[in-house]
Design a protein that fits this description.
heterodimer; A: about 240 residues; alpha/beta; 4-stranded antiparallel sheet; B: alpha+beta; 12 strands; elongated
Chain lengths: ~240, ~400
């Protein structure tokens, strides 16, 4: 059974007097444990697709089934709950809360899940340890390097054990070395069974996934499996065993 | 997520936000501070005024009826008709004491100002009161030295008097007053007692007076046919209405009024003054609180403004929180709690300033006090101002589209 099933999804926006067709009937299935890259030039609809997959937005037409639930038919509040439970976001600009320390940032999804403070703290500490930041828990974002910030963001994305890890240009704001480290972290997470979807316009980032979906003008242009993923993570252990 | 932990979360966030924008938060709070200071001071001033007034009329016992020709408060027309009323007579006081069952004490009363002399010294405009021994009970006065008038004094064998403390200090200047003789309208009186200091009644000095047996005054000095009032102290303060009615009927009987004739006398009570005063202060309070609450209103607008700024500034944060699973309700509550927190902070600061000001005013100007209920109300009002002022900005934050919010730079 598929984790994600999109059927004939379209999404239109009104921009002034003009109607923009961002997606024009996309059908797509992603199984549990897959590592998928979504590619496409700007204007291809990949951001819209990511917003829909992340339950930040709902389609104008078509149905979206995530983990057995029909997302396309739910309201704001239920969407918030689904995001909290099923989706872990990693953003290009990290999007950490600047005034909160790393631990507090990672705790945030647990706060909205209604988990009591003590338990929250323990789970968040575990997540930070997993991404190798056990010694940085009380640092604020501006006291951390770019790579460390993105690790905090990954820890935050994973802390609720979501069904999907959804990353939007996760290396876009990082130099290539730290970018590689983050990608190695993703490969490790993928091997541990997490479902990962990366939205990117960089070919070499996409090549690390197992499957590449290319969009053009709001439609799927190609959907291919990657035969030989480059730089297997085995050589660069990014996850420290705890 | 339950509301309590949401409020707790909101408090943490707003505490951080206030700390991060100290100057801005202080300025935003200023309007609330000023509003709370003015409203609280106004409330305290009215409270103090009431207390002071009640104290100033405390010489009028709550349980004493004052029978007079005219009511204390009457309009011009009734004053014109009441002019034809019969004067109050001493004989009526005597009849009342025979017939009334409810009276603890009955004292006829007459007064006027005279010059009082002692040796070579004289004091003008001393209040001369003619009454009987029961005046001690109806007036609530106390004896500091010597004794009060007695029934025997009333028979008029010995001309005696009891004097107030201001008369002692004005005329005697250290001489022992007891046993001395003073002259009122060229009649000589022996001082047999000195009254305790009583203060003033509605600005009228109660200590500058000489009390003389009423017969003496009526017959020998003023030669008047009538008296000013009869003071009747009720025996049972829990049954004032019934006692007042008995008094009225007895007076009508004494005066042989037919059932269809209206009363041709008035029974005055302390609560008439209180009612009038409370009506006046209520008007002052309503107008005053309205004007001062305008300051609070302006403060509230300031908070609303700063909350709009805060929401716009934190658009991205709102987007992130929503992406991580915050419901509209949580976002709304976060900003409401923040607005309420800032206002409550302003309320506490304002209350502290108002408290200090109240102390200063009561030390150097007139007695005021800040009561617990006023302080509580001030905090409640500032909290409510925050909730009301924060509502629209919080609503706007809650309704934000997460996609748009995340795109915001």
């Amino acid at each position: 059974m598929s984790l994600i099933r999109l059927q004939n999804i379209s999404r239109r926006y009104k921009m002034g007097a003009e109607i923009v067709h961002a997606l024009r009937g996309v059908s797509l299935e992603i199984a549990r444990g897959e590592y998928v890259a979504i590619m496409g030039p700007s204007g291809s609809g990949k951001s819209t697709l990511m917003n829909l997959l992340g339950c930040l937005d709902t389609p104008t037409e078509g149905s979206y089934e995530l983990n057995g639930a029909f997302v396309s038919e739910t309201d704001d509040n239920d969407l918030a709950e689904i995001r909290n439970r099923e989706i872990g976001f990693v953003f290009q600009t990290f999007n950490l809360l600047p005034r909160a320390d790393a631990l507090r940032n990672v705790e945030l999804p647990l706060v909205y899940a209604g988990i009591p403070a003590q338990e929250r703290r323990k789970i968040a500490l575990d997540a930070l340890t997993q991404v190798g930041l056990a010694d940085r828990v009380h640092h604020k974002p501006n006291e951390l390097s770019g790579g460390q910030r993105q690790r905090v963001a990954v820890a935050r994305a994973l802390v609720n054990s979501p069904a999907i890890l959804l990353a939007d240009e996760p290396t876009g704001n990082l130099d290539s070395k730290t970018g590689n480290e983050i990608m190695a972290l993703f490969e490790e997470l993928s091997r541990k069974g997490n479902t990962i979807i990366v939205v990117t316009h960089e070919e070499d980032i996409a090549m690390r996934a197992r499957r590449i979906i290319r969009l053009r003008d709001g439609l799927i242009a190609s959907d291919q499996l990657v035969q030989h993923p480059t730089n297997p993570a085995v050589h660069e252990p990014a996850l420290r065993d705890t | 997520m339950n509301p309590l932990s949401e409020i707790h979360e909101g408090l943490g966030i707003s505490f951080d936000a206030v700390r991060a924008n100290k100057l801005r938060s202080t300025l935003a709070t200023l309007g609330i501070v000023i509003g709370i200071v003015t409203v609280t001071l106004m409330g305290s001033a009215i409270h103090g005024l009431n207390q002071a007034f009640i104290k100033s009329i405390s010489a009028l016992g709550v349980d004493v009826f004052y029978i007079q020709r005219n009511s204390w408060f009457q309009d011009y027309d009734s004053w014109m008709t009441n002019r034809k009323r019969r004067p109050i007579r001493l004989k009526e006081a005597e009849q009342l004491s025979q017939k009334l069952s409810m009276a603890a004490a009955i004292a006829p009363d007459i007064w006027d100002d005279e010059t009082v002399k002692y040796k070579t010294r004289s004091a003008p405009l001393v209040n001369i009161v003619g009454t009987t021994e029961e005046f001690l009970e109806t007036s609530g006065a106390g004896i500091a030295e010597g004794r009060f008038l007695t029934a025997a004094d009333g028979e008029g064998s010995q001309p005696v008097c009891v004097i107030g403390s201001d008369v002692v200090s004005n005329l005697f200047r250290g001489d022992p007053p007891l046993g001395a003789r003073i002259k009122v309208a060229n009649q000589s009186f022996e001082v047999v007692g000195v009254l305790q200091k009583q203060g003033s009644l509605l600005g009228w000095n109660m200590d500058n007076r000489v009390i003389i047996p009423i017969r003496e005054l009526l017959a020998d000095i003023w030669n008047r046919p009538s008296i000013d009032e009869i003071d009747v102290k009720a025996a049972d303060t829990t049954r004032l209405d019934e006692e007042r009615e008995e008094l009225r009927q007895t007076m009508r009987h004494i005066r042989h009024l037919r059932p269809d004739e209206p009363d041709d006398f008035a029974i005055n009570q302390q609560d008439q003054i209180l009612t009038l005063f409370h009506n006046a202060t209520r008007t002052i309070a309503i107008v005053g609180l309205f004007v001062t609450s305008l300051a609070l209103f302006v403060g509230g607008i300031g908070i609303m403004n700063i909350m709009f700024v805060s929401v716009v500034e934190r658009t991205r944060e709102i987007g992130v929180r929503k992406a991580l699973g915050a419901k509209n309700r949580s976002i709304m509550l976060q900003f409401l709690v923040e607005a309420a927190f800032i206002c409550l902070l302003g309320g506490i600061i304002g209350l502290a300033i108002a408290w200090a000001a109240t102390l200063a005013v009561s030390k150097w100007m007139f007695p005021t006090s800040m009561s617990g209920p006023i302080a509580f109300m001030a905090l409640l009002v500032s909290l409510m101002t925050g909730v009301v002022a924060g509502f629209v900005p919080a609503w706007r934050a809650a309704k934000m589209d997460p996609v748009e919010a995340l795109r915001n730079e």
